[in-house]
Amino acid sequence: MKSTLAGQQICFYGAGSIAEAIVRGILDKHIADPEQITMMNRNNQERLSLLEQKYHVHTTNDVLTKERVLREASIIVLAMKPKDAAEALEGLRSLLHPQQLIISVIAGLSVGTMQELLAATNPIVRTMPNTSSTIGLGATGMCFSTNVNAIQQQIALAMFEAIGVVSVVEEAQMDMVTGVSGSGPAYVYLMMESMIEAGIKGGLSEEQAKNLTVQTILGAASMVQLTGENPAELRRKVTSPGGTTQAAIETLQANQFTEVMIQAVHRAAARAGEMGALIGRETHH
Ligand SMILES: NC(=O)C1=CN([C@@H]2O[C@H](COP(=O)(O)OP(=O)(O)OC[C@H]3O[C@@H](n4cnc5c(N)ncnc54)[C@H](OP(=O)(O)O)[C@@H]3O)[C@@H](O)[C@H]2O)C=CC1
Ligand SMILES: O=C(O)[C@@H]1CCC=N1
């Protein structure tokens, strides 16, 4: 079957961790060929050489070539840090054609601010993926500007469904998606770090503590997915009355585990909003 991305020239404007995660994911799933992809950054040539070597994609650091690639791309993926976004988007003004599809992964940056910075009304897909996209297990939130047509929606969905699951949401929910799943892997990693540390402090070897922790997280997530049962129900099955799990959960709840988790997710979402507002203020015109 012909891929939805067939014939598209995709330019990754920003070549950091999330750009690499997406590229690796879509190449592994064979929904695009390396020849369709160009990755560019500001000036880190070493990074580009590594990406070229690993994925056989085109890369460029040369100003004129970058401009040409940006002009000729049918899809431009904006993947720079929020602090670099205003300048980069303003730099695109003179290069953009109205039919080019813009896909942003930048936290907090609204469709409205992008249109203002680009001084254009190109179709825009605002996304929030996460780093697990690298292995095809990403979780992406996505919303569309009103002028993204059905084919362009399919293109964006195909790209991100190739690297995990996608939730289409209203733009107002994008910052909350960032708090839950964009930053989410880091919360789980912190929990893993803590469980490993606890194991080591209690006498397990580092390897034992790590193996047991990794498999526990993997197994728990897979149980939710494969049994279709709710986390609360599955938790109940682990928790024997008066047993060890109950003792642990009581310790977590005595320290406001649930409240702290909610606070953390909401703080991340609020931070996304703050970053977006900051980018908006950097508009030079
Ligand atoms: N990391 C994550 O888990 C996620 C990140 N995001 C979003 O993705 C974006 C990128 O994050 P991440 O990949 O972690 O960041 P990185 O720091 O790893 O990468 C940023 C990239 O942007 C490039 N860049 C900066 N300014 C420009 C410019 N003017 N022109 C071209 N390239 C430029 C940098 O190039 P150079 O090295 O040469 O400076 C670098 O390649 C952020 O906006 C973030 O909010 C979204 C979801 C998850
Ligand atoms: O920490 C950040 O700002 C980015 C956005 C989501 C994950 N990483």
UniProtKB/TrEMBL annotation:
Reactions catalysed: L-proline + NAD(+) = (S)-1-pyrroline-5-carboxylate + NADH + 2 H(+); L-proline + NADP(+) = (S)-1-pyrroline-5-carboxylate + NADPH + 2 H(+)
Binding residue positions for NADP(+): 79-82
GO molecular function, one term: pyrroline-5-carboxylate reductase activity
Pfam families, per the entry: F420_oxidored (PF03807), P5CR_dimer (PF14748)
Enzyme Commission numbers on file: 1.5.1.2
UniProt cross-references to PROSITE patterns, sorted A to Z: P5CR (PS00521)
Biological processes annotated in GO: L-proline biosynthetic process
UniProt keyword Oxidoreductase, yes or no: yes
Segments forming domain Pyrroline-5-carboxylate reductase dimerisation: 171-275
Enzyme class: oxidoreductase
UniProt pathway: Amino-acid biosynthesis; L-proline biosynthesis; L-proline from L-glutamate 5-semialdehyde: step 1/1
Start and end residues of each Pyrroline-5-carboxylate reductase catalytic N-terminal domain: 9-108
Keyword set, alphabetical order: Amino-acid biosynthesis, Cytoplasm, NADP, Oxidoreductase, Proline biosynthesis
Gene3D superfamilies: NAD(P)-binding Rossmann-like Domain, ProC C-terminal domain-like
Bilayer-spanning residue ranges: none
Family stated for the protein in its record: Belongs to the pyrroline-5-carboxylate reductase family.
PANTHER family in the record: PYRROLINE-5-CARBOXYLATE REDUCTASE, PYRROLINE-5-CARBOXYLATE REDUCTASE 1
Function of the molecule: Catalyzes the reduction of 1-pyrroline-5-carboxylate (PCA) to L-proline.
Protein name, per record: Pyrroline-5-carboxylate reductase
Organismal lineage: Bacteria, Bacillati, Bacillota, Bacilli, Bacillales
